[in-house]
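Quick one: structure for this chain?
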Amino acid sequence: MVVASSPGPPRPLHPLHAILLAFPLPLFLGALVSDFAYRSSFHVQWANFSSWLIAGGLLVGTFAVLWALINLFRRGTARKGRLVVYFVVLLAMWGLGFVNALVHAKDAWATMPEGLYLSAITTLLALAAAWIGYSGFRTGEVK
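Got it. Here's what it folds into:
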């Protein structure tokens, strides 16, 4: 016999949090594409695009990280492992994005290849954060 401690579907994100979480992935992905375009063409404008896209991802990502932090402390202490993982992935995304912004602040030629690698890692972390965030949080476990 299967007994559920507290039945219910996965708990979705708050709509405003979902909107904030929707921005970092495409912005960091756009920065990665811009870095690839710069690597193949060496037109400085592609490096400028990357810098602006990274700045946008950091701006909106800051609010998503703050929302996740508040949500982490707002919940009870029981069963918040997934919330902690979600917050840590978002924080790692923001931290590496900030380092990436500092790398992209250098001369365009000096951003390669570190900027490309950091953009790829930041994009993967943004994808992981979106995956965890949009998959919902369960309110109980099945025993």
